[in-house]
Amino acid sequence: MAALKTYLEGLRGQSVAVIGAGVSNMPLIGLLRQQGVAVTVHDKKTAEGLGAQYDALQALGVSFELGERYLDCLPEDVIFRTPGVHPDHPALCAARGRGGLVTSEMELFFELCPCPIIGITGSDGKTTTTTLVYEMLKRAGHNVHLGGNIGRPLLPEVDEIAPDHLAVVELSSFQLMDMRRSPAVAAVTNLTPNHLDYHGTFEEYVEAKTSIFRFQQPGARLVLNWDDPETHRLTLPPTASVVWTSKTKPPRDGVYLRPDGMVCAARDGESRDLLPQSEIRIPGAHNVYNFMMSAAIVNGWASDADICAVARAFGGVEHRIEFVREKDGVRYYNDSIASSPTRTMAGLASFAQKLILIAGGYDKHLDYGVLGGPICEHVKTLVLTGATAPKIRACVEQADGQRPSILEAADLAEAVRQAAQAAQPGDVVILSPASASFDCFRNFMERGDRFKELVNAL
To answer: Measured in whole angstroms, how far is the alpha carbon of residue 51 from the centre of its chain?
Structure first.
């Protein structure tokens, strides 16, 4: 009998709570109900807020605990945590104290998946790196399954995954916090302060991220960025087989950039050329790191020819320095994924000219001081909106260098209008908020889609 079906049948006679009726949990709820498992959905939204999801869940025969007090009572035997609820939430701690098992859709996938799992995390670049890895492996002829934080749950198809397949998953700090399993290949792109509104401290954030390799078995591979100070100082398991990427130092094993611009791969101290960095299609110095990380991850599964072909053809992932349109000689780019200062700094550095930048949004309690200098260096007009606008303005006004003109807008629509009015032929306008989207949008994708709508309506 297939592993997932066996697991689900083992839950019959037990009560199951699923916290959050989001993208990753909806298929799980359907699977549980197909096997006759009693399910209660706990969600902060009301029935009206869930809308069509509520109707679909009600048709499946689930019970509900909805609204602001949705976690007041968790008496169920097995509780599937949504990534948005901290593992140390008092309600979950109380449930464990009563003997309840707290798990997650991703942890169950790791338990049941029969093939090698490649897991990728980090503060910046993980979606692009994950997608590059998937494309390289697919080009090399592998049966590859792509999912995780990238927006696609893999648990529903785990019974169709064979031992000779490969699974590539993007993992967030929220997903990793209480994981007790690690992938066969783990990669950490970099570590900078992020999601401190959730984690509270940078130390907890790093602790969550490093769960990706903490439970690796002997023979597993760990890919790290030599040039990132935080990943370089991590305490690594004694059995870790570490592969490095670097723009500053050729590693014994890994992928690096020579001073002449050639990307090279090294194994046991012997190097070979891959391709000039100028042939990597997606723009930006940070994407050279993403490519090097991807090449190091797929080593042994994909040929150099496969790796280089993808580098030359891959045009990028939506909402990541995504070209929207050119109007009246002005080019517009959507970088809505940039929900932290470091992401915006990378986006700004991807262009040779000074930009018109739209920034600001939900406050995740990050340090914006690092953003002032790069904005002065790379931006000629700054359009601010959202809760973080005062913080970003303050860091720019306190920075050295030539300050941009600063405009303020009530919302994204007004920000786009102001940016378009300030632009001249030859200019570049970029949405790169350095902030999360939750003040006005459900997620960065919705924000990016709205930006594209506004730009295309100009």
So the answer is: 27
